[in-house]
Specification:
The protein has 126 residues and is α+β, with helices and mostly antiparallel strands. It contains 5 helices and 6 strands. The two termini are 21 Å apart.
Length: 126
């Protein structure tokens, strides 16, 4: 299952992920988001979304490893795949039929959001 990961670019941006090559996705405290993190599997596709500043899906990544032995602080390693040719803004996402009724808009502050393959394709294909 693909996921959308929200990050504040002034704290950790997609550019930072590209520079680092790999990182642990941490700092998550919301119980629902932690549940989604613990459920991730190696190789799953990710969309990185810049929240607060930019408000757009900006790149893709993938899960490198998952260690969910500590349920309050799962160790999820991710690495960048590519920058999107066309960033998808919040306004574009909000008005896209494929996102109608999405958890992304019902639980807006959720920083880890499962998405369907259809949503992933819409976000990543130009």
């Amino acid at each position: 299952m693909p996921y959308l990961l929200k990050t504040e670019p002034n704290k950790y941006s997609f550019e930072d992920l590209e520079r680092d090559g790999e990182t642990t996705w941490d700092g998550i405290t919301n119980n629902q988001a932690l549940l989604y993190l613990r459920g991730m599997k190696k190789g799953e596709k990710l969309v990185i979304y810049h929240s607060n500043i930019g408000k757009a899906a900006v790149g893709t990544a993938k899960v490198v490893s998952v260690d969910a032995s500590d349920p309050k602080n799962p160790n999820i390693r991710i690495k960048p795949v590519k920058r999107l040719k066309h960033e998808k803004t919040l306004d574009e996402i909000r008005t896209a039929a494929v996102f109608h009724g999405s958890i992304m808009f019902r639980q807006f502050r959720l920083s880890v959001v499962p998405i369907t393959d259809e949503k992933y394709d819409w976000l990543t294909l130009s």
